[in-house]
Each structure stands twice: as C-alpha cells, then as structure tokens.
C-alpha cells in the first residue's frame, strides 16, 4: 500500500507491505538507525518515535498507520551542529552510558516537555516508565530532563 | 510478522461489510499493543487486520446523562480529558495504570476490554460504573451491559461480524456523596501487569456513613473481570465500619476464584484481595466525604 507522511520535516511517499512495522520501515527502508530495536514487544521503549508529537513504540506500530501523519525520529530532534537542548543536557549531565535507550528517552522527554514544560520529578518518572535503561542511569537522565526544562522555559521567558 | 492483508476501511459500513464477509479471516485491530505482539509471537495468525483507526471512533462526548466514549479513544485521552476527570475520575485513575506512556498513547479503551483478559484494567472501572457497550454489525446496533461482555479469558460476547463502537457511561441516581477508587497491585511501580486490581464506586451518607449504593469489581480474581454482587448486596443499606468490612471480606472469599499463575499464587492473591477490598472501600468513602457530589 502507498503511504504518504512527513518524516523529520520532509514529505515522503513509499510503497510498503501491510504487515511492516514502523520500526522495520524506519530502520530497513529509510535506513535511519537511530531508532533502536530492543524488546520488540512494546515494553522497553528503545524504539520510541513521535507520531504527531506523541511517543509510540514503533516495534508494534504498523507502518501503514503513519499515512497522513508526521513522524519524528531521533535524527529529527537536532543536528550535530545544533543539538536540541535535551541532547545538550543529556551530554552535560552524563545521562547516557551505553546509549542504547537514549533515542527513546530523548523523544519521550521531548513529548513530556511539550505537554508539561515544568514537570516534577515524579511526573518525569511516570512519563519515562515505558523507557528502560538497563545501565540503570535513571538519576542522571532525570537530572538532564530537569536541566533541559529549565533551559527551555528560560528561553521562552525571553 | 507473518503475511496478512492490512485493511483501512473507508467508513464504518465498509468495515462491517468486510468483517461480515470473512473472506480473509479478519481480525479487528484497535491500538495493537496486545494484538500485534501476539501476531509477532505466532499466537494469532490473522488473514487480514481491519484497522479501525481511520473510522473516527476516537471521541469523548458529554451528554446530560453521562459520557459516550468512542472505542478507539486512546487511554491517554481518557486520562487527560476534563469531563472524565470531573465526572468519572475512576476511568482516568485506571487508564493511568495501563502500561507506559507509549502504550497508553497507542492503546485504546475499546481494545483494552476487547482483549477479554481478566486483567484488562479498564474493565474494572467500567464494571463499577455499569457501562453499556454499543456494538454494531450489519444487522444493526446491540447494547450489551459490560458485566455480560466477558465470557472466559480472551472470549467476549461479540457476535461474529460485530464490533465495539462506543462505550456509554451514565450517572445513576441515589442519595449521598459519591466516591470511587481503583487500586492495582503489581510487582513493580510501572509497566506492570496486574496481580490484582480492585475498583469501588459508592454513594454514602456523610453523616450516618450508611451506604446507599456500592459497586465492587476485581481484576484477575476469576477467569473474567468480576463484579462482586454478593458483597455489594450485603453492604448496601448498612453503615460503613471495620466490622462491616470484615464480614464483607468473608463474603468476598466465596465470590472470587483466583488461580496460581507465574505472577502470583492463589493464596497471595486472596490475601491481597482481603487487604485491597477494605482499602478501596475506605478510600472511596473518604473521597466521598471530602466532597463527592451526589450528582456524580
């Protein structure tokens, strides 16, 4: 079937198979390897991407469903020259260890801050409950999100 | 995933025609958080998936008598919706306990109950709200009370060719202050599957503590999400007290039939049920006293 969608700001049209998952499509067809293949059961969050601004697990999300929608993967969050404030904060706070959960963590955090610019620690934990970090680096991840939230709200005030 | 056709019906009548046709071995796809994992694991082998996401069944409409919730409404929308939070907070409370942020964005209220699982979190608040399910097929609409919907694990009372369109929640009349609560017990704080869940919805006189109406449901304590009618009948019309709850627990034990599974033993589940029944009733009554309005 033919799908038309916006990927990281770019309009795209592709022919896909009905049973294709968005994860397979992103990694194997679009060759965007920032989205990670983790549990493939919708539990670990490593494959999280934003569909119309909302985080979903791309491993159990049919590619057919992105027709008419806007998708953001980690490749669309910032550029190497111009990192998103969340990415800067993750680096500054040392919030990544092995880094495998990072893409999903960052995109989920972005969706959280878009919805709630000043989340409490508990709200951050609740939002990240579907993103597992097996290095168990949650403390620094939470700290980085708090720092990014402050930076982003500071910018808005100016 | 194994090969299957993926169908986006143009509208509801077309969806019903495809479903009635059965030419592909059609399985209805809601949010996909349960079904697509089962397909991947080979537990389901659909000939075709009928995706309901394009049918505009994602809505929450406030009516004078209550709310109507489209079957494809995401759990996140249920949690965030102002009318739900004001009138039926137990729905938001239960939806917040499903999976994680991502699964709640994908998962739908209709899909949650159509899994037919005894652990379906949304079944519990819908049971204590005595929700009605508007199911449709080519033959027309049929309204099914939610307590008649569950037959056995993964078996629901949905005729061949029928699908769940929307969920109707109406406010019932009664005297006193209203309070409700949903408590879920799992082995960790998030992304947990249910060992036991309890929902209570009651009307109580704040002065005398006499229970005017009470509805109680439990998840994972029988092959289907369970209404505890005997406990309800026993507690109705009596003033709430520790002694009353103790007797209620004894009756509860005759109504539940928990099993031992990977997640917990039958004995542990029964122990939890004893504690959580009391806790959920007291929490609901406390909320009612704090300012639950009789208008619900």
Oligomeric state of the chains in view:
heterodimer
User: What structural class do helix, strand and pairing data of chain A support?
Assistant: alpha+beta
- State the end-to-end distance of chain A: 47 Å
Mean pLDDT of chain B: 92
Q: State the major sheet of chain B.
A: 5 strands, antiparallel
Low-pLDDT segments of chain A: none
* SSE string of chain B, helices as H and strands as E: EHEHEEEHHHHHHEEEEEEEEEHHH
Rg value of chain B: 19 Å
Strand content of chain B: 15-25%
Total helices of chain A: the number is 5
Short description:
The complex is a heterodimer of chains A (158) and B (296). By secondary structure, chain A is of the alpha+beta class. In chain A, 37% of the residues lie in helices and 15% in strands.
Question: What does this entry look like structurally?
Answer:
The complex is a heterodimer of chains A (158) and B (296). In chain A, 37% of the residues lie in helices and 15% in strands. With 158 residues, chain A is α+β, with helices and mostly antiparallel strands. A five-stranded mixed beta sheet of chain A has the order 2-1-5-3-4, with helices on one face. In chain A, helix 2 crosses helix 5 (138-157). The longest helix of chain A has 20 residues, at 138-157. Chain B has eleven helices and 14 strands. Chain B has helices at 12-21, 35-40, 75-80, 82-87, 89-95, 101-106, 109-114, 123-128, 229-235, 242-255, 266-291; strands spanning 5-7, 26-29, 48-51, 60-62, 66-70, 132-137, 140-145, 150-152, 155-156, 163-170, 177-185, 196-204, 211-219, 226-227. In chain B, strand 8 and strand 9 form a beta hairpin. The longest helix of chain B has 26 residues, at 266-291. The N and C termini of chain B lie far apart (46 Å). The relative contact order of chain B is 0.12.
